[in-house]
């Protein structure tokens, strides 16, 4: 069963003692920061995987546009040169 964003799972992480002490000194929530960092790393990994999986289609699309121009270009209101 997939987890929803409200479900939490306990885990252990290892960080330097200096970083943990500094985080505590400033009242930072290490769990929330770790969760946000992992979420961003997952987002970046998904984007990279998608780009890799679709690289051929992206290349073909760019080549088509280079040859044929952008679809509906004649209807474009804002012209950028």
Describe the protein in words.
The protein is mainly α and 81 residues long. Helix content is 58%, strand content 0%. The chain is built from three helices and no strands. It is elongated. It starts with 16 loop residues before the first helix and ends in a 13-residue tail after the last helix.
Question: What is this structure's SSE topology?
Answer:
Layout: H1 17-25, H2 30-53, H3 55-68
Report the principal-axis shape: elongated
Oligomer: single chain
Give the mean pLDDT: 91
Strand content: under 5%
Low-confidence stretches: none
> How many beta-strand runs?
0
First CA to last CA: what distance?
50 Å
How do the SSEs run, as a string of H and E?
HHH
Structural class: mainly alpha
- Contiguous helical run count: 3
Helix content: 55-70%
Radius of gyration from the alpha-carbon trace, in angstroms: 22 Å
- Strand count, sense and closure of the main sheet? none
């Amino acid at each position: 069963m997939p987890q929803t964003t409200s479900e939490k799972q306990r885990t252990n992480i290892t960080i330097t003692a200096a970083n943990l002490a500094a985080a505590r000194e400033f009242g930072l929530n290490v769990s929330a920061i770790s969760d946000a960092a992992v979420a961003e790393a997952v987002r970046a990994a998904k984007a990279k995987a998608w780009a890799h999986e679709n690289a051929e289609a992206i290349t073909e699309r760019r080549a088509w546009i280079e040859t044929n121009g952008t679809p509906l270009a004649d209807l474009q209101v804002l012209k950028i040169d």
